Every structure is written in structure tokens, then in C-alpha cells.
Amino acid sequence: MDLRYYGAMELWYYGAMELWCPGPMALWSYGALDLWYYGAMVPWTYGTMELWSYGALDLWYYGAMELWCRGPMVIWSYGAMGPWTYGTMELWGPGPMVLWSYGALDLWYYGAMVPWIYGTMELWCPGPMVLWSYGAMVPWTYGTMDLWSYGALDLW
User: Fold this and answer.
1) Domain boundary at 50, 80, 110, which?
2) Cβ–Cβ contacts within 10 Å for residue 21, how many?
3) pLDDT, tens digit, for every residue of 110-137?
4) How far apart are CA 43 and CA 10, in angstroms?
5) Both 112 and 69 in a single domain?
6) Residue 93 CB partners (closer than 8 Å, separation 6+)
7) Which PANTHER family match (predicted)?
């Protein structure tokens, strides 16, 4: 179990319960309070419905329709292709490939490989392995081992 701070507080646990737990359920705070559920239900539910707060209030629907508000307001659909504004402009279509700007420029690939920039440059691939930099540079794997730098360098 890992407890760290990121503008607020985040709890992680890979495999059981966490603040970001891909599989069962995750709960984490990111400037606000976000709830996740990978495969079931969550503020960020992968396959069903997601509800999570990220400075505002966001509602998601994977495969149907998602409504997410992050400063401005964004509406997008998962499974199709959704364009939305997030301070700048984001274009992302989880399933095939996503391109979105998050203060910079982010590229996603759900199930394959995803590179995106979040202040620096991040590579993130849900399923196989993820490599992303968040203030530095971080490579990590989903369900295996994670190595990522978040202002410093963390190994978990």
C-alpha cells in the first residue's frame, strides 16, 4: 500500500483496493476527490459508469457518453471519438487512439500504448506497460511493477 500526496492525498493499492486500483476499486484525491472502479463502477468506471471529481465534477460513461468538467466543461463519448476542451483542446477516442492537450499535448492508446505530455512527457499504456513523466520521467507496469518519478523518484 502506498500513501502519497499530490495536491491533496492519494491512496494506492494494486490488486485490491486503492486510490487508483485497476481491477477492483480505487479511491484517490487529486486536488479534489476522485473515485475509481476498474471494470465495475466508479468515478471513473471502465466499462460501466464513472463519477469523479477533479477540481470540479465529472461524470463518465465508458462506451456510451461521458460528461467531465475540469475548469471549463467537457462532453465526450468513449468508444466513439470525443473532442473536448481542458484549458486548451483535447481530442481523444479510447479504444482506437486518443490525442488530447492537458496544458501541453497528450497522446493516449487504450489497450495498446499511450504517450502523453503532462507538463513534461508521459507514456502510459493500461494493460501492458506504462512509461510516463510527471515532473520527471516514469516507467511502470499495470499489475506488475511500477516505477515512476513524481517530482522525485518512486519505486512500487
Assistant:
1) 80
2) 21
3) 322 333 333 323 333 333 233 333 333 3
4) 14
5) no
6) 80, 81, 82
7) PROTEIN CBG17025
Q: Are residues 105 and 117 in the same domain?
A: yes
Q: Identify the domain containing residue 127 by its residue range.
A: 81-156
**CA 62 – CA 64 distance, rounded (Å):** 5
Angle subtended at Cα 55 by Cα 7 and Cα 150, rounded to the nearest 5 degrees: 30
Domain final position from 27, 54, 80: 80
Burial of 71 (C-beta count, 10 Å sphere; 0-12/13-18/19+):
exposed
Task: Give the number of domains in the chain.
Answer: 2
For residue 77, the model assigns a pLDDT of 32
Residues 97 and 111 in one domain: yes
Cβ atoms of 55 and 70 within 8 Å: the answer is: yes
Position 156, amino acid: W
Residues 1 and 76 occupy one common structural domain: yes
